[in-house]
Structures are given as C-alpha cells and as structure tokens.
Design brief:
Length: 74
C-alpha cells in the first residue's frame, strides 16, 4: 500500500499538475499528504515485521495452563 500511495499510483490518483507538468498548489498538498500516509503505512508495516521476527527469534507462550488456572500474556 505504501508503494502504491507514494510511487505507483495505479489505483490512486496522481497529484495534480498543470499543462507543463509542474505540480499545482493542490497537487503539492496532495503529494505531501501521500508522503505522510505512505510513510506511516511503511513504518507500521516494518514495525509489524520486526515484532513478528522478534517472536520467531524469542518465542514466548501466549497461554499457559497451570495448577492455578489459565494464565494469558496480553
């Protein structure tokens, strides 16, 4: 999604340009918004991948059944 929003624009609209190909003021605002949203998507995705890889390296049980009952790691 981040690549689509920032670079590809195959599904989303490209920022507005004038007949010379220069960004209009509305297009510049749209480009800035796309960069912010795309960066947020990229960073959140990278964070999720890092947490998943951390779980693979150091696995911990989510639920443990013991003598005192069920213990959940939240």
């Amino acid at each position: 999604a981040a690549i689509e929003i920032v670079w590809a624009h195959s599904l989303t609209l490209e920022p507005e340009t004038d007949e010379n190909g220069v960004l209009t003021s509305r297009g510049a605002k749209r480009r800035n918004q796309d960069l912010i949203v795309g960066t947020a998507f990229f960073l959140s995705g990278a964070g999720m991948v890092a947490v998943a890889l951390g779980g693979l390296v150091n696995p911990r049980p989510v639920a443990v059944v013991g003598d005192r009952g069920l213990r959940l790691r939240i």
